[in-house]
User: Fold these one by one.
Assistant:
Number 1:
Amino acid sequence: MPDSKSHLEAIEAYLTNLQDRICGSIESQEANTRFREDAWKRIEGGGGRTRVLNNGSVFEQAGVGFSRVSGNTLPPSATQQRPELAGRSWTALGVSLVIHPLNPYVPTTHMNVRFFEAAADGKDPVWWFGGGFDLTPFYVFEDDAEHWHAVAKEVCSKFGVDRYARYKKWCDEYFYIKHRNETRGVGGLFYDDLHEGGFEQCFEFMRAVGDGFIEAYLPIVERRKSTPFGDREREFQLYRRGRYVEFNLVYDRGTLFGLQSGGRTESILMSLPPRVRFEYGYMPEPNSPEARLSDYLKPRDWLAQNVSNRTQSHS
Amino acid sequence: MPDSKSHLEAIEAYLTNLQDRICGSIESQEANTRFREDAWKRIEGGGGRTRVLNNGSVFEQAGVGFSRVSGNTLPPSATQQRPELAGRSWTALGVSLVIHPLNPYVPTTHMNVRFFEAAADGKDPVWWFGGGFDLTPFYVFEDDAEHWHAVAKEVCSKFGVDRYARYKKWCDEYFYIKHRNETRGVGGLFYDDLHEGGFEQCFEFMRAVGDGFIEAYLPIVERRKSTPFGDREREFQLYRRGRYVEFNLVYDRGTLFGLQSGGRTESILMSLPPRVRFEYGYMPEPNSPEARLSDYLKPRDWLAQNVSNRTQSHS
């Protein structure tokens, strides 16, 4: 662990730069629409900059937030893994984003990288990293999901042979809508409580995930953004966005912790889709493209096919 | 307490008739649109009939559900007030409704009446009633809210002098969106764990609330359903419906208990509005009709003005 202040400065410098680069790459897809920024402060300590782009030609809404906040008393709900830290002072830094494209053939996505540190009596502070990225298509193109997972695996590759498999599984388990018996989308990476390998390696992994996100998502946007669509696809997208709302408000620990701990409501709920539809008893037509989505909303080994293709081409 | 079966039959007979009457009064506002019914069974025991009307000229969606369900093991989350009952077998009967009108000048409303019974070792079963009704306008007409609360008070009048005041307060406290620091609407009645006065009186109160709902809501619909509106009012309605989603998915105990205990998801979530809009950082124009709503989203003594008018007219 480096000096107790400089590591926070290093993380902040990376995260604010990451936010800039992500917003730049989103804006690069738009002719005229730009992010607007709200800088905010938190009474207990710290603040953030929330950036939202609305009504673009490609992105109906993109929210990319940076925050660095601190508090005097960690609530017990934040320390399920480490109850002994309840009540300690803490600092959290992170970048979090949710992107809701206009075209239903472009998937929704979410990415988050975060660092958490809690004071420990007379010892070095306790710290951990968390984060990941996941993809929520309305119409699944297997190419896109394979590319997404290939980048996820590449991001993990230099951090141990099983890291992709572990974080991919964790992602499937975390983004699971229990009352629908389906995953939120086709997954990606999710990790929390990461401290293995020491601070420097964990921080390097944060950077790999943050940088990898752009590489994972932008090519999919490029590929799908011009696909023609009509009311049918739009209505299906609005309906499926309802599941996003259900997950975020019923299950997402980050959202619930944020709302319960007096976080900045507008920044927390910028994850919610700009327009949504709920429909009692909706069932897609059998064998329609809309019906096929459910085949993909369960854990799946997205890279198995690639591996087997590669094996075949060598045989 | 009457014989252990006949009281359940009496409650069921009242509730199914109430569902019929409410659906009839909703349909009486529509030229051609009718409820469709799904009858369903629950594997563990019991079932229900869920009725939904969609895309009416007055009601964009109305969901009115009856259910009678039973289980072998009460989850602890259902017995916060009586932890000694956890694990017992139970039966629950209720009618629950949420109505989302098309015209933004007609308020959204929710009503629920329910009965709960849990087995108790070697003793009479433990039972209680719960329910209430509440109103969520987008544009507040004080006349409407006063009428609503006058009926609520009348419903309570023969059950004790303080009952309206207690249940009105409980409603304000229950339908409170903490992260927005506002009530969900202008309130009404909310009660739970009701057993005071004995079974017969409690059942009579259930009937007073159920019957009172029609008398409270229909005149407001009649008064406002033909008010002209445009995109501005519609967009505001869609935005405010987002708060309804936030409350129901983050705070509503009935919704969360239902989803967590393996209830019928479609029936539980028929409370969600058919179309919704979320907007980061939305602020109504100062002094606009939209801005005035927030003045009403805090507890208010709706009948004080009437009392003082009446007093004045007598003086």
Number 2:
Amino acid sequence: MAWRAALRSKAVIPGLLSCSSHGRLCASPTFITQRNNSTSPKIKVDFDQTTGVAVMHMQSPPVNSLSLDFLTEFCISLEKLEMDKGCRGLIITSNQPKVFSAGLDILEMYGKSPEHCGEFWKVVQEMWLKLYGSNMVTIAAISGSSPAGGCLLSMTCDYRIMADNPRYTIGLNETQLGIVAPFWFKETMVNTVGHRNTEVALQLGLLYKPAEALKIGLVDQLVPEDQVFTVATQTMTKWLTIPEHARQITKSMMRNPTIDKLRTNREADIQNFVSFITKESIQKSLRMYMEMLKQRKA
Amino acid sequence: MAWRAALRSKAVIPGLLSCSSHGRLCASPTFITQRNNSTSPKIKVDFDQTTGVAVMHMQSPPVNSLSLDFLTEFCISLEKLEMDKGCRGLIITSNQPKVFSAGLDILEMYGKSPEHCGEFWKVVQEMWLKLYGSNMVTIAAISGSSPAGGCLLSMTCDYRIMADNPRYTIGLNETQLGIVAPFWFKETMVNTVGHRNTEVALQLGLLYKPAEALKIGLVDQLVPEDQVFTVATQTMTKWLTIPEHARQITKSMMRNPTIDKLRTNREADIQNFVSFITKESIQKSLRMYMEMLKQRKA
Amino acid sequence: MAWRAALRSKAVIPGLLSCSSHGRLCASPTFITQRNNSTSPKIKVDFDQTTGVAVMHMQSPPVNSLSLDFLTEFCISLEKLEMDKGCRGLIITSNQPKVFSAGLDILEMYGKSPEHCGEFWKVVQEMWLKLYGSNMVTIAAISGSSPAGGCLLSMTCDYRIMADNPRYTIGLNETQLGIVAPFWFKETMVNTVGHRNTEVALQLGLLYKPAEALKIGLVDQLVPEDQVFTVATQTMTKWLTIPEHARQITKSMMRNPTIDKLRTNREADIQNFVSFITKESIQKSLRMYMEMLKQRKA
């Protein structure tokens, strides 16, 4: 099985959650304030009315961390596209080199008030709810590594095309950091790669190389790095030939049972997350992890 | 994954539902009346008392469309065999060249009263309920293409042997016609090929070539075209060596949760189907589809 | 699919349940009494405090039958290790040649009172509940054949390493004896190899050769016979690098839904088992099976 290879390889080097900053500034409150006030969009949206296809280019340096701001912008963009009847397909990709998205931004969870953590978690939920249940055809053009929340974002799309570069990895590696993927991350993964693959992947926090990810079905297709976006566009064209209403109802039938589980448990899920993440032991893990990231960058 | 190949190949040419008639007569009410009065059996049943194995030869030209008459006859034959203690195995095959069954008969859904559509849907349910829960060992000897309802019929058996001819295809391609496979078609497919394969197969309405179908587990075995029935018979012999009572209880344990979902929701499922199929937009899709079929035959 | 090969091969020779004695003594009540009074431990437990890893060597000749005594000892040992905070990993292996465990001991079910059968079944449940929900990392070092209850024991661990010897087999072959695997055996198998593989495996009572077992995911890794234990130890070392608390919560999240189904239905499950196993027809099957075993040994 591919995850044995993943376990043997260096792919398991923790790289799971991300820190939305460069090197030493990582935990600087000043920086965070600046970041929050940033007016440059973290996502560039191109919508081609002739094809009905929108593209979200994630462009939040250095690694497209899923911060509160990023996710808020993501949800607003997604909702706009969803409400535009002319928009039938969405390709999500990254403008940052070597990375699709490095996942949830640790700075939103480290040293923050329970209120802040709760607000953050709510928008993580919102992103998933909107994207997993989108009426549009959604394709992830995974142009680089995609750990943790980046992997969730990918799995939440309808189809995943990944750059065939063995230096990139993808997986829900939260456990490696002492964090637990919540039940709806888990269910999304079970729906994608089955129960047993998920059991091992989540217990070990495995990051898979592209070939291994393809083998267990975590991605659908590997292509040379410079063709990821082109193939995503071609694939979209094929999907858009399918009668739309029937495809949408079918998608709902497959995904609504999972969506409903979170929708009816959002508050409890937020409480769970907040009480877990604000624990002293978990905060300590996050701090050590960020220090490790800093040292690797230095 | 096999369905990518399926999407690329010409296998996706719509061929999903079928029309129980030749060329131009397709939508003729006169023809339908004649058909209803037909006394020639649409299914030939051979039962060998020495082996305990019955064979249903589907012989309804041209493509074994699952019409109201066909399915009624199917259910009556199945119930007779089920009640015969000496009958322990059932092989379902086709006497028509190149096709196992082309699926539900569009003529039962096009231009018909809600009452007729409801009556038709009830017998589709009945076929599935009886066959998926049969105490007999059931083997589909898939001697040709098997789209839509033909694929459902195959998946409802215990084991599927298909002719290894790349011109044949199998799959639930309803979406291609703008129709939605109901939840119990979906669950039967999930039970056969898993959640992710089903999600893609149903969203795109994929028809798989035999090699692709084998790869995802939609069929269990490929054999040369002239050996399908022989191998089905040999396989049946092996299955019949298993202690019967234990096998039957085991089968129930695996399948009853799915069966119960329909059994407790039959009326609602009929209402859903009738209100969907009688929509003007869906009727228009059916008409266009039948016209396309006529042109292909012309 | 691997189970077709299994069906074709001689792997299906019934070998499913076991008889905890040598040849002719098999059904001797005297022998059973002696056995119950035996003071030599059926399981040797080695616990290395420096590594935090315990090893259970099953050493109940000839085939590590899961008798009432054996399972009671197993549960007590497991509970002790579970309560020892220093014990973080458990490897289960066999000291008997050619066999991991031959499964539930028929002598506990044949010619016994309903009370005895119920008491026996309760400890079978207990073994599964404790092991499937263990906080420790659990690895099965499958050094030989592992039919029926031996397969259940293996599947209940977190990871399965099997000796790559084609003369060994593994599977839930209860149906071959006329017995039905209970729902929680079934669910454990579905969680391991998926719905369709389980449906066929349980209906036919298939025993898989190592290569086939690997193919469907019934075991995770094959290694040369003399390296099973070494590789298990190395694998354990890797698993123990994972942050423990996060891994445990993740494991619970994956397994608790299945565990809860039995926990809330233990009494009904015992009643089901007792009323089934004490049926005259089933007792007759057991007797015939034991006689067949004796003849094979003679």
